[in-house]
Design a protein that fits this description.
Layout (H helix, E strand, L loop, with lengths): L43 E9 L6 E6 L6 E5 L2 E10 L10 E21 L2 E19 L13 E7 L5 E7 L2 E16 L1 E4 L2 E3 L7 E8 L7 E6 L4 E23 L2
Antiparallel strand pairs: 1-4, 1-14, 2-3, 2-10, 4-5, 4-8, 5-6, 5-14, 6-7, 6-13, 7-9, 8-9, 9-12, 10-11, 12-14, 13-14
């Protein structure tokens, strides 16, 4: 994702009490100025299940985002590979931008009510815990560059209303009309420290909401090489599972 939004006054978030855990840190808020993220210009992603890859040694990273001040998690095998996708004919402006999804579980105390808006409209989500880390990834096909303008994102399991809309997605793996249903993850930009190297947050106001999608599945397996800060590997993907769309975070409150 690139910087495509206007300057914003204030810092997002909300002060959240941490109970007996130091993982949920204080966050200040100024909600008088709405976000100005251009949802049409940010990258949409369709995420495919990684059905085959090379097992590798787990990596320990330190993550810090708007909901959890700092925590250490272990990153293991890749779960999904997310490709830039056109939604309903919208242009893909950054074809080099790919993400790999890894498990990164942490409790969230208290749960949070997150008010967001994306191209499906305003939503109210309840975030119950961190679940996945999205890592910028270079696909080693076609001379694509490394996506060095893309955030790492920490994704939280959420509950919320169904979308119940049909959209047409077109990416490097095919074109499909799918049904968008429940929100599954809300993803914050996150600072990642691994091996003494810090990957900073590049766009603090750009979030992703990942929705479950349904429709006729692809059956052809595709194999390709990838490289990111976690690994260099050969992935095989077949079925898709999620659509991750750019989102604005409007407000956050702890669940009473």
């Amino acid at each position: 994702m690139r910087t495509r939004f206007s300057a914003i006054v204030g810092v997002l978030g909300v002060c959240v009490a941490a109970c007996d855990s130091q993982r949920t840190g204080p966050i200040t808020a100024d909600l008088t100025t709405p976000l100005q993220v251009d949802l049409d210009l940010e990258t949409h992603f369709r995420c495919y299940i990684v059905s085959r890859q090379t097992p590798d040694t787990a990596v320990t990273v330190v993550l810090s985002d708007q909901f959890i001040a700092s925590d250490t998690v272990t990153i293991d095998e890749p779960l999904q590979f997310c490709a830039p996708t056109s939604k309903n004919g919208l242009a893909v402006l950054a074809p080099e931008e790919h993400l790999t999804m890894y498990a990164a579980n942490r409790d969230l105390v208290p749960h949070l009510i997150v008010s967001t808006e994306d191209q499906f409209g305003p939503r109210t989500l309840e975030a119950v815990g961190a679940r996945m880390l999205l890592v910028p990834t270079q696909k080693l096909v076609g001379g694509l560059a490394f996506p060095d303008a893309l955030n790492h994102s920490w994704c939280y399991e959420v509950t919320g209303d169904r979308v119940r809309e049909r959209v047409t997605l077109a990416d490097q793996f095919g074109t499909d009309t799918v049904r968008v249903e429940r929100p599954h993850y809300f993803c914050n930009p996150v600072e990642k420290v691994a091996g003494g190297v810090t990957s900073p947050i590049l766009e603090p106001d750009v979030h992703l909401t990942c929705y479950e999608i349904f429709g006729p599945q692809r059956t052809d397996a595709t194999e390709f090489g990838v490289e990111n800060q976690i690994e260099e590997d050969l992935f095989t993907i077949t079925a898709w599972e999620l659509l991750c769309v750019p989102s604005e975070k409007l407000d956050v409150q702890p669940v009473p």
